[in-house]
Amino acid sequence: MNKKLYVGGLPYSTTQDGLQQGFAAAGNVISAIIITDKMSGRSKGFGFVEFETEDDAAKAIEMFNGKDFEGRRITVSEARPMEPRAPRRNFDRDNGGDYGDR
């Protein structure tokens, strides 16, 4: 069964290929994703790595959690399911379109 890990504290210069290649030292990486800002396209400094087996994922946590990765100390843990969030308010629309027009 596949196991997904959260990787936090990544350098903003880390690429998905770099993340995948780095974590391949722990086992067979199925996917590696860097989370980016929707507006700017820049890295948010965290991502997810998915391993083929739970054993490989456990090995990756042991190998990388709290260790240096491309110049920064990273956090590696089991990924948790995303919790539902309340919808965002559109201040421009919800405030009658008068937001910042003074």
How would you characterize this protein structure?
- The chain is an alpha+beta fold.
- The chain has one domain: RRM (RNA recognition motif) domain (Alpha-Beta Plaits).
- Helices cover 23% and strands 30% of the residues.
- The chain has 3 helices and 6 strands, in the order E-H-E-E-H-E-E-E-H.
- The protein has helices at residues 16-23, 54-64, 91-94, and strands spanning 3-8, 29-36, 43-51, 68-69, 72-73, 75-78.
- A 4-stranded antiparallel sheet has the order 2-3-1-6. Strands 4-5 form a two-stranded antiparallel ribbon.
- A hairpin with a 6-residue loop joins strand 2 (29-36) and strand 3 (43-51).
- The N and C termini lie far apart (57 Å).
The helical percent reads 10-25%
The ordered H/E elements are: EHEEHEEEH
What is the number of helices?
Answer: 3
CATH class: Alpha Beta
At CATH level 3, the topology is: Alpha-Beta Plaits
Main structural class: alpha+beta
Largest sheet: 4 strands, antiparallel
Strand content: 25-35%
Query: How do the strands line up in the largest sheet?
Result: 2-3-1-6
Number of spatially distinct domains? 1
Q: Any idea what the radius of gyration is?
A: 18 Å
Low-confidence stretches: none
Short description:
The chain has 102 residues and is an alpha+beta fold. Helix content is 23%, strand content 30%. It has helices spanning 16-23, 54-64, 91-94, and strands at 3-8, 29-36, 43-51, 68-69, 72-73, 75-78.
